[in-house]
Amino acid sequence: MSDDLQKELGVVRDEIDAIDAQLLELLNRRARCAQQVGEIKARHGEAGFIYRPEREAQVLRRIQGLNPGPLSNENVTWLFREVMSTCLSLEQPLSVAFLGPLGSFTGSAATKHFGHAARLLPQSSIDDVFREVEAGHAHYAVVPVENSTEGAVGRSMDLLFSTPLKICGEVVLRIHQNLMTREPSLDRVTKVYSHAQSLAQCHEWLNRNLPNVPRISVGSNSQAAELAMQEAGAAAIAGEAAAERFNVPILVANIEDEPNNTTRFVVLGRFDAGISGRDKTSLIMSAPNRTGSLHNLLLPLAEAGVSMTRLESRPARHTLWEYVFFVDIDGHRDEPKVAKALAELQQQAAYLKVLGSYPAAVY
Amino acid sequence: MSDDLQKELGVVRDEIDAIDAQLLELLNRRARCAQQVGEIKARHGEAGFIYRPEREAQVLRRIQGLNPGPLSNENVTWLFREVMSTCLSLEQPLSVAFLGPLGSFTGSAATKHFGHAARLLPQSSIDDVFREVEAGHAHYAVVPVENSTEGAVGRSMDLLFSTPLKICGEVVLRIHQNLMTREPSLDRVTKVYSHAQSLAQCHEWLNRNLPNVPRISVGSNSQAAELAMQEAGAAAIAGEAAAERFNVPILVANIEDEPNNTTRFVVLGRFDAGISGRDKTSLIMSAPNRTGSLHNLLLPLAEAGVSMTRLESRPARHTLWEYVFFVDIDGHRDEPKVAKALAELQQQAAYLKVLGSYPAAVY
Questions:
Q1: Range of the domain at B329
Q2: Where is this site: Essential for prephenate dehydratase activity (chains A, B) (predicted)?
Q3: Could you give the CA distance from residue B352 to residue B345 in angstroms, rounded to a whole number?
């Protein structure tokens, strides 16, 4: 390196060193504050409530609002996520059960929500994830609920119906689809494997780029990736993690038609969350089976001016009703407007279960 | 929550908010400095050298020296690792090939060294890891070299012999062994599977706790975990990642006899590192096959006062010499004392390859 370069770099590096010393001081002051929070709560008999989802959401939203750049909001949210996770772990290390393996989309969601200091406990089925938390072996669970790629939604919803656990958070993860194959170019691809939902997500891309190649629907994207590795001429559509797991080269990345292809996960614990200022509430309802009953059922929400962000019907099992409805609404169950609408719903619905109120996903 | 509690918490939370605003400001100032470093290097035609292993090691060591607590040195090193990783990714996102799958010990080592912002590329063999970087598909490789649990050392060493890549870093990872089984208690365990090295690491624990139970050596700890999941009465000794991968409950954690059970990895890239102030240099040497030749070979090091931290001999393949020696020494090849010793060695040895100089592991 030239002397000039060394000198110029030296100036900037001295500045970085000065910044780092300040950062270090502040991080430790923050950790002492977190300890004080723990002490105060212990003195008031609330030692079990060190992790407060609504408070974490507020901190992260505030950071995003203040962020001047050049770090992106995603960058700073991640860094503060890690700072909070580390400070919290001094007080109460959290354990999180999720649908494994490590490296799965759900694992990414768990880390995105709880940070690196949480202990991740991968489970081999969604049933096991619920069971681990219900049995007290883990503090929190993370499961997919609206999963555009793995088809796991149904099971999560069935288990939400019967679990005593509460939803205390949501995580939204951007999902990219990739065409992976051992072949060196598209013209060597003779079939494409994927889960039906993933094939549908890349429908237009396939029409344009592989118009005459058969599309074969298989049970999961992981299975598709495995087949692509084994069979000459085969390609799979799957996420990056599957390409990594089965060591199949990605030929074309990000082929999803919809640029905003996401999967939504919920975080479950023994309690739901307090009011954060931008919250959602999830419900399960059912109506007696007559025409127009759904409309009547939803009327209290409309009249109270509560917006619905999701409505999904699902054939009921082991119940008196033919359908159950999964409904997400804006607002917290403790906000007067929402509380009033829920009281009305309680009157109307044959069955109503409030799954929990929680901060809307922060990033 | 009581009003008192709310009020007390409010005071501390206000302080945290103030700290966070300062942290945010400093993090962005740091990112701007990192951008300046990039601009300065580009102006001097060194745009490819944004990542400097020796500089990162210096920053982390300084942080550890300044850290007042309550955050542990491990906590703050991790947080600054993430801060640097994020700042660097604005300039030059790094890709890192490693021995997969995700969740393996080597994956943990890669994240420990490069932070979360690096792109991890798991490979299914050590050969593939080297190849990815040699072919320019990844910037860096992470491979185990002294692996007390997976028996992968040999292949790494053979490939180090022939690769044009240079060692630019090392990572030391604490490895815990665990007894995992589907059985509810130790008295139900009728056999223990593990890799021979892992059985050896837990020899005393097994003598004390499972004295009459047969120990069966298998090819890898992963395989042992899989068998423990399949066979009634079977237990495995393996790391946490294997328990997670095969969903076998851990019955007793941290059963290794040696409390300092670690695995050492090296980071490989196209260039080695500059002087960081606390460095190592790795060499491969061979001697003509005569008695006393190893002693003669090492004499220049002893005379120059250079300490050896590791010496390992390995039967040579495809070479004229019967043995090659893998030697790690303290110090950087550009330090006069080391440079002089290496020049002497060059005279004495039938073959000498300097694999690289790099900062000693920081945490």
A1: 279-359
A2: 263
A3: 8
B-chain residues near A8 (CB < 8 A): 40
- ipTM metric: 0.79
Residues of A whose CB is below 8 A from B247: 100, 122-124, 128
Residue A254 host element (H or E) = none
Digit-coded pLDDT (tens) for A70-94: 999 999 999 999 999 999 888 878 9
Question: Nearest residue on chain A to B82, judged by CA atoms?
Answer: A79
Beta bridge pairs of residue B27: none
Asked if the C-beta of B79 comes within 8 angstroms of chain A's C-beta atoms, the answer is yes
* The pairing of beta strand B262-269 with beta strand A191-194: unpaired
Q: Does residue B337 share a domain with residue B218?
A: no
Residues A315 and A341 grouped into a single domain: yes
B347 touching A, CB under 8 A? no
Of B50, B66, B89, which residue is a domain's last?
B89
CB contact under 8 A, A9 and B37: yes
How far is the CA of A43 from the CAs of A40, A55, A230, B8, B361, in angstroms? 5, 20, 61, 11, 42
What is the DSSP secondary-structure string of B141-203?
EEEEEE-TTT--HHHHHHHHHH---EEEEEEEEE---EEEESSSSGGG--EEEE-HHHHHHTH
Residues A10 and A81 in one domain: yes
Nearest by CB: A26 against B23, B31, B70: B23
pLDDT per residue as tens digits for the range B218-243: 877 888 998 999 999 999 999 887 88
